[in-house]
Amino acid sequence: STFCRIVIRQKTEDLQEVESYGTELVNNAEAKIVKLQNQLKAKETMIEDLQHGGTGRDARYLRDEIRTLESENDRLKRELKELNIEVSSSRENIEKAVNDYMECKAANRRLEGDNDQLRKDILDLKNQMEAQREALMIKRDGDEGRLLKTTSKSRAKQSS
Hints:
Elements: H1 2-52, H2 59-159
Helix pairs in contact: 1-2
């Protein structure tokens, strides 16, 4: 039982550590998502501004800048999509770890109950065995006493 408590305590600490790490991972990813969304909006705004003001000598520069911004915009969208997938996966892993822990804890409670019942059964069997041993000892002592009396009487008759 002490061993079980130690294992449960260790598993609880492990779960808390995993949950803490997972929460930190999710929070960091969500913060990065917000940052990327803001960057994406800023880039989209810059693209729109450049598209509306792109005439004359600066047209070539503006087209190059638009391509660069659109490329970066696409990269940010891909990164945002990957982070969303990572956050979703992390949440699922945390949820699975919590469910596994709860199942283990319930199984442990059942096993402790079974263990307690087995201990009671063993104690009952020990008591029954002891009672039978005592009954046999009493019977044997009684049989030996009768045998001694019978033997003494036989010797007494033979002497006379």
